[in-house]
Specification:
The structure holds two protein chains of two kinds.
Chain A lengths: L6 E6 L5 H9 L2 E8 L2 E9 H9 L4 E6 L5 E10 L6 E8 L5 E11 L10 E5 L3 E7 L6 E5 L7 E3 L10 E2 L6 E7 L3 H13 L5 E2 H10 L1
Parallel strand pairs in A: 1-4, 2-6, 7-10
Antiparallel strand pairs in A: 1-3, 2-3, 4-5, 5-6, 7-9, 8-13, 9-12, 11-13
Chain B lengths: L6 E2 L24 E5 L3 E4 H15 L4 E4 L5 E4 L14 E8 L4 E6 L3 H14 L4 E5 L5
Antiparallel strand pairs in B: 2-7, 2-8, 3-6, 4-7, 5-6
The chains are: A alpha+beta, B alpha+beta.
């Protein structure tokens, strides 16, 4: 699903550093940097509430408008996260041309149901959530739709996915994207019996085994 | 069955400190939803197993669960009514070191409501405050 390149406005950051970035975040802004194309890097601040929904929708490329400067076409290159690992605290933009070829990770949207997954005790596993593809910046899709009903056998590989026109797979085609596994009801019972046996069990100490060999 | 290492290099370890936040294993990597620790603590193999059983009984073989922590630290304890000294005691249990941000469990292949309920049951068995999280934004 291709979408139009969104535009976001940014302000120049004259003062950089942890303290000033923290103050920006308290105001609902996200510190960022624009670099690339052999031009000097620029420190910017963007509105968090504008940028994050776009990223959640799968936007990679965007126009960044900075007051008093020409509009720049940028690709979101990297995100930094807070200590709990989910709140975005910094964004890296890299300058690109819309006709430039780039490699990006695109989210996979699964739909349909696999025939194997209909069997008793079958568990459908989505082993990959995104796929690395190479394409022009203007052709980056928001997501790649994967039809699970086309799965033959127990697994679907990256090479078997029908990619939209203009996209080339950058990942290994043998990468498993989705698979069907079967749960074994007897596994749990075995686990409980093993529990009793394992109570007195101790792990093997490698260094002691070596010392015994040397002594013997 | 409580988990423990198969092979170890040394039988006993020093206690160590749990300073700072988790910098690895602090986001949902395998499943769609996860349970994240908000405090630091040792989590024993029995607690990890209790969490697994609580969730798996609730899920009734739906979806797939990933346990992201492993109890690789031997914790020794002196027997009761023993005088101090005479060397370090034997291993009592195995524990995983958990810092704020560590992803404890992940679930894939079930709806959000069901995953939330299952992970809430695990959280009851944990010695730390936890929160429910989803996958983070990727680019």
């Amino acid at each position: 699903m291709k979408h139009e390149t969104p535009t976001i406005s940014a302000t120049l950051r004259e003062r950089v550093g942890t303290r000033y970035c923290r103050r920006l975040r308290q105001q609902g802004k996200l510190p960022g940097v624009i670099y690339g194309h052999k031009t000097d890097p620029v420190s910017v601040a963007v509105d968090e509430k504008t940028l994050l929904p776009l990223l959640r929708l799968g936007a990679h490329a965007m126009y960044v408008e900075i007051e008093g400067r020409p509009r720049e076409t940028c690709l979101v290159k990297d995100l930094q996260f807070g200590y709990l690992g989910d709140n975005v605290i910094h964004v890296d933009f890299t300058r690109v041309d819309l006709q430039e070829e780039v490699t990006v990770n695109v989210h996979l949207a699964f739909f349909g149901s696999a025939a194997e997954a209909q069997k008793a005790d079958a568990i459908l596993q989505q082993d990959a959530t995104e796929l690395s593809v190479t394409c022009k910046v203007s052709e980056i899709p928001g997501e790649i739709r994967v039809d699970l009903s086309q799965m033959e056998g127990n697994h679907l590989t990256a090479g078997e996915i029908e990619l939209p026109e203009g996209l080339v797979l950058a990942d290994d085609p043998q990468t498993i994207v989705a698979s069907v596994t079967f749960a074994h009801p007897e596994e749990e019972a075995v686990g409980e019996e093993a529990d009793v046996a394992a109570d007195g069990a101790e792990p093997e100490v490698i260094t002691e085994a070596k010392a015994d060999e040397e002594a013997g | 069955m409580p988990r423990m290492p198969k092979r170890i290099k040394f039988r006993k370890q020093m206690r160590g400190k749990l300073r700072g936040n988790a910098t690895r294993g602090n986001f949902v990597a395998f499943g769609e939803f996860g349970l994240q620790a908000l405090e630091s603590h040792w989590i024993s193999a029995r607690q990890i197993e209790a969490g697994r059983i609580a969730a798996q009984h609730f899920l009734r073989r739906q979806g797939k669960m990933y346990i992201r922590i492993f109890p690789d630290k031997p914790i020794s304890k002196k027997p009761l009514e023993t005088r101090m000294g005479k060397g370090k005691a034997d291993t009592d249990f195995w524990a995983a070191r958990v810092k704020p941000g560590t992803m404890l469990y992940e679930i894939a292949g079930v709806e959000e409501g069901l995953a939330k309920e299952a992970l809430a049951r695990i959280a009851q068995k944990m010695p730390v405050r936890c929160r429910f999280v989803g996958r983070r934004i990727t680019v």
